Amino acid sequence: MSVEDAADRAEEAEEIEVRDPVSAPDAVGRPRRTTRRFPLFTKDTARPEGGGRAAPGDAPAPARQWPVLLVLGLVGVGLLITALDVFRIGTLVIGGALLLGAVLRWLLPSVGMLAVRSRFTDMVTYGGLGLVIVLLALMAQPSPWLTIPFLKDALHFTVDS
């Protein structure tokens, strides 16, 4: 590169006008807009924490995903029990399956497709939904197995006979 070329490049660099604080010249010297915004279309996504295989890679696919298959299998059994007109037991099995999913997410380092979000969010979601389903199953009418006095008072306060 000659001295004249270097002088021309220096003049071009002086002509660059940066209009906003996020513009910066690229390697060639042209202003290039760099932004902190996410792109409109993402090319890939990050795997959730603990989203690796639950078994070695040479194992068959069902063995690699045993945690989610266990939880889904128990939910299926609970739905079948509920469909056979044993409502309370079936919903207890469904809630217990979700609680089991929360415990598996907490204890195991890799749970395969049971990992959807961060570990904390998955545990709170599975545990919260499982707990609510179990409590609703225990308080279902007729003849609830669990009675909470202030809820009974709130119901009688809102519903007039």
From TrEMBL:
<protein>
    <recommendedName>
        <fullName>DUF3017 domain-containing protein</fullName>
    </recommendedName>
</protein>
<feature type="transmembrane region" description="Helical">
    <location>
        <begin position="120"/>
        <end position="140"/>
    </location>
</feature>
<feature type="transmembrane region" description="Helical">
    <location>
        <begin position="66"/>
        <end position="83"/>
    </location>
</feature>
<dbReference type="InterPro" id="IPR021385">
    <property type="entry name" value="DUF3017"/>
</dbReference>
<feature type="transmembrane region" description="Helical">
    <location>
        <begin position="89"/>
        <end position="108"/>
    </location>
</feature>
<feature type="region of interest" description="Disordered">
    <location>
        <begin position="1"/>
        <end position="59"/>
    </location>
</feature>
<keyword id="KW-1133">Transmembrane helix</keyword>
<feature type="compositionally biased region" description="Basic and acidic residues">
    <location>
        <begin position="1"/>
        <end position="20"/>
    </location>
</feature>
<keyword id="KW-0472">Membrane</keyword>
<dbReference type="Pfam" id="PF11222">
    <property type="entry name" value="DUF3017"/>
</dbReference>
<keyword id="KW-0812">Transmembrane</keyword>
